[in-house]
Each structure stands twice: as C-alpha cells, then as structure tokens.
Design a protein that fits this description.
Oligomer: homodimer
Number of helices of chain A: 7
CATH class of the largest domain in chain A: Alpha Beta
Low-confidence stretches of chain A: none
Helix content of chain A: 25-40%
Number of strands of chain A: 10
Largest interface: A-B, 66 and 66 residues
Radius of gyration of chain A: 19 Å
Strand order of the largest sheet of chain A: 3-2-4-1-5
Order of helices and strands of chain A: EHEHEHEHEHEHEHEEE
Shape of chain A: globular
CATH architecture of the largest domain in chain A: 3-Layer(aba) Sandwich
Number of domains of chain A: 2
Chain lengths: 243, 243
C-alpha cells in the first residue's frame, strides 16, 4: 500500500478562489507539503490554511534562495537541484509508508510551479493526480477589470527574467501579453515595453486578489522606489472595447 | 437600488473545479444567465447546475451560430453584435430592477470568454465583479500529466482560427504553445505544426476534465474522422524533465 501524491493548485491568493476539489483533497491529506521562502510561513499554505486538518503532518520546504536567479545561472541549477531532490525524498518516505500527501502550489501547478520539479522526480514511483488552480494572471486581469483576450487575439506569457532584447522582440508581435516574475526585473521590463511601443498600454498589479492589492498604469508607477514585490505582474491586454 | 452583475468563471468542465467563491455567488444570485449553443442546455449551466437556486430566474442566451466563423467575417460581426446587444439588454432590465445577476462563463471569463462582450456593454452602468476560473488549458495539461511551463519558458496561446502561415510562424518561436478553437481547423493546425517541426511534440485532448476525456499524441489521431469537437485543444509543452 503506497500513498497517492496530489499536487494541488490553491489559486492566485484569495482563499475563496480555491476550487471545491482542492479543498476536499487538502482536507483529506494526512501530510500537507508546501514551499516557503526563508523567514516566511509559506504563501500557498496561508491560502489553504482553513482546509488543512489539524492532525495532518505539515512539511515545509524552505527555498535555498531569497532572490530570483536566472535559471541559466550554474549556481542556481546545482543548488536548486539538490533542494528538489531532498524535498522529493521527504515526500517519497511518506508515500512509501502508505500516507496520502498533498503538495500545495500557488496558482496552477503546471504553469511555472515549483511543484513540477517534485512531480518530475516522483511520477514514476507513485500514483498521482494534479488539481489545476486559478492562475495568478487570471486573478490579476479579473481584479483589474481588464477583459484580456478576445476572438483571434494571441496571448504571450513572458517571464521577466528574459533578456531585454528578447522581451522587446516578443512584445513587438502584438496582441496580449502577461509578464511574470517582475521583482528586480522591472526597469528592464519597462525599457523593453517602451522599445516595443507598448508602455502606454501596460498595467502594473501587485498582490492581485489579496489584501494590499494595487493596480495602476505602469507608466505612472514611481521609478525610484524599491524593487517590485515578487507577487507583481504586468498586463498588456489584447484588443479592447465592444464590437 | 440597482443589482450587481457578477461574471463567474465555472472552470474547465469538472463541476468540482468550480471555485468556492463561484459557488457562493451563483447560489445567491436571483437571476442566473448563460450562453448555449442551439439545441443544447448550456455547457456553463451544466457545470454549475448544483449551485443554482431553484427559485432563481434562468436566462438562456442562444448563440445565433452553430459553427465557428472567423471574427474577421463581416456576417459574423453584424449578427453577433446584435445578439450581444439583445443579451445585454435582458440583463440590464434585471439589474435596473435591483436584481443581482450572475452571468456564467466556461473556464475563465476574461480569457476568450463571450461574457466579455456583455461586460463591455454593461460595465459603465452597473456595479460588477469578475470571478476568475480555472481555464480549459489548465484543466487539460493537468489531466494530461503534462508539466507545461518551467523557468524561462514562454507560453503562447494561439486561436486555431489564425491562418496557417501565421500559426506556423508563431509555433516556430518555440517553447510552449496551446492551440484553442480546434474544431474544423484541425487539418490546418496539423499542417502548421508539421511545418514548424512541432507535430511530434503535440498532444491532442478532447473533453478535458469531463466524461469522455480523450488524450493522445496528435500524430496518432485518425485523420479521416469527423471534425474535432469544440471542446478540444492541442498542447505543445515547454521543456520537459527534471533538472
């Protein structure tokens, strides 16, 4: 008897944007695992807190980094690989002992989620199911009252970690774009949007669907402040207006 | 006293993939509106059925078309515009009389949802809120056990209604792609994928998260059958495998 691994998306931040399926599976899990930044309780755990059974084991996986390194950086690759191996090992111990485990993930697990790195390591050995969630971008464009893609619009989702020229080239293709992983990449992203002639259409949003939510045109965001928070995003909507 | 318009995403098809917020708002609405194809009950209504109060008015908006026309087609533009005007008028009557209305939408409302056309017409006159939902694509890549975008991957969402050359040019940019609105566009989409050297990586999925779900490599899908159903999608995942 081996346990089942459920990888569960908890949505963009508002605890009410969890799905009914996620709430059920989290509530039934005897082990609930989640990632957390150094010194934090864990964002996904916070979103799902009310559904976690009080007697369930909680496994907190603390990231070895506090800032966003490029995935091309060799230090990042080596350290993060060891970290994911260790996390997968801890889950495998529980699953091997017949314990059902739920691994929580912000947004939707298979859309830029760290949970995929554990899934890749465990999928061959254990029964599993993936519970999709509402993405951060859906939460953000809904909060911003911003109809995003109509009809034949193409959507591009661009990590802010891309080089400036690559970002600008992609943005020049037009239609709708979402730029994720903003943080310290904001000045570069702003320059790429300007170069592509899209700065005037870009909306900046931080803490979308959460307390502290802030939505404004990117062009009117103060340049001189600290880095944008990790939970920030830039939205360039597709064609607007009724037809 | 005017009513509030809630535009509510009901997710990809599995009724358990509705959010807790959607269930609450649908249950409280005195009027529940939804789109339906000719001769069908309405797919979004079917997903949300268990949450609709038995005494609520149900407004069924039947599309004037049964097939997908290009949004560039002048017949489409004229007829669909009149249809959306009529639907918006019916909702405005309820909202103007102080009745709270929920407009249901498959997937996520602001992501290729028809509900946007009513939102565009009503947003200036009535209080509103948008409840994001799990997209069809998230449901599909989760069902297909297909981690989709990692790290610096770019995601492109491409309507299958695009011309073959435009599709192939976009697909040649690489990384992850989702092709929506497959239906009768399947032969063209297959040709574009082949031209871009991506046919071997493409996964075909129909009725994702629903009964009748079917997932297979696009290259092994029978060419000679009828058109792909409306609820079908093609997924080209980003980089795969553990790091």
């Amino acid at each position: 008897m081996r346990g089942t691994l459920s990888i569960v998306g908890v949505g963009p931040g508002d605890p009410e944007l969890l799905t009914i399926k996620a709430a059920r599976i989290i509530g039934a899990a005897r082990c609930v695992a989640f990632f957390a930044k150094r010194g934090r309780l864990g964002h996904a755990r916070g979103i799902a807190a009310q559904w976690i059974d009080a007697s369930a084991e909680q496994l907190r996986f603390e990231y070895p980094f506090t800032t966003e390194l490029s995935v091309a950086d060799p230090r990042y690759l080596a350290d993060i690989g060891r970290f994911y191996e260790r996390c997968a090992g801890l889950l495998a111990e529980r699953l091997g002992a017949g314990i059902d485990a739920a691994l929580l993930c912000e947004g939707d697990p298979f859309f830029y989620g760290s949970a995929m790195y554990l899934f890749d390591r465990l999928r061959g050995a254990f029964a599993h199911r993936i519970v999709p969630g509402v993405t951060g971008m859906s939460g953000c464009w809904s909060s911003a009252d911003l109809p995003f893609t109509h009809g034949d619009d193409v959507l591009q989702v661009l990590p802010g970690t891309l080089e400036r020229d690559a970002l600008a080239a992609r943005l020049r293709l037009g239609d709708a774009a979402v730029i994720m992983k903003v943080g310290g990449n904001l000045p570069k992203i702003r320059a790429a949007l300007d170069e592509a002639g899209q700065l005037g259409r870009a909306i900046y949003i931080e803490h979308g669907t959460m307390s502290g939510e802030r939505i404004l045109p990117l062009a009117s965001l103060d340049h001189s402040g600290p880095d944008a928070p990790y939970f920030s995003m830039i939205l360039v909507p597709g064609r607007q207006g009724p037809r």
